[in-house]
Design a protein that fits this description.
single chain, 151 residues, alpha/beta, Rossmann fold, seven-stranded mixed sheet, 5 helices, 7 strands, 27% strand, binds adenosine-5'-diphosphate, binds magnesium ion
């Protein structure tokens, strides 16, 4: 695991943007962290990395998914309102995970066992104030992250 500390929402966006550059088309990313952790800020960063206006990035208010058009498509899923854990297939997400775009899923822990089907899991913990600890999978090798503090 690779952990880094973000000290601002801006920094979280930079983390998201540089992380995005490490992904290949068709990859899926699960974000796990409590309300206010910075999952949506991280998605804004990913969007910036794809040439999408960050202001377009808002949590889907109708349905589970927003679709943004950039260098690649970005599918933005938010499972916050799920009452119980659900499977990818039941949610109708299978095709989004197979396409050539990128798919990022907030509250990915609500996928239960299907979490294992995602390519990358990023955990975000609130430490205090504006400090957040990001935990990336083993082997996440991103120059920008190397310059950040760990704790
Ligand atoms: N280091 C940080 N990273 C991300 N967001 C931060 C940070 N510090 C403060 N914030 C604030 O916390 C909130 C995070 O909101 P959001 O990204 O919507 O969280 P989530 O999607 O996880 O519920 C925003 O208001 C943001 O400005
Ligand atoms: Mg959110």
């Amino acid at each position: 695991m690779r952990t880094v500390i973000s000290e601002s929402a801006e920094q979280t966006k930079t983390i998201g943007r540089t992380f995005c550059a490490s992904l290949r088309p068709g990859m899926s990313v699960g974000l796990i962290g409590e309300l206010g952790a910075g999952k949506t800020q991280f998605v804004k960063g990913m969007a910036l990395g794809l040439g999408i206006d960050e202001d377009e990035v808002v949590s889907p208010s109708f349905g589970l998914i927003n679709e943004y058009e950039g260098d690649k498509k970005l599918y933005h899923v938010d499972l916050y309102r799920l009452e119980t854990n659900a499977e990818i297939e039941t949610l109708g997400l299978t095709d989004y995970l197979r396409g050539s775009g990128l798919c990022v899923i907030e509250w990915a822990d609500r996928l239960g066992e299907d979490l294992a089907l995602l390519d990358r899991i990023v955990r975000i913990e609130i430490l205090s104030g504006n400090r957040r600890r990001f935990t990336f999978p083993e082997g996440t090798d991103i120059p920008y992250l190397e310059g950040l503090k760990t704790l």
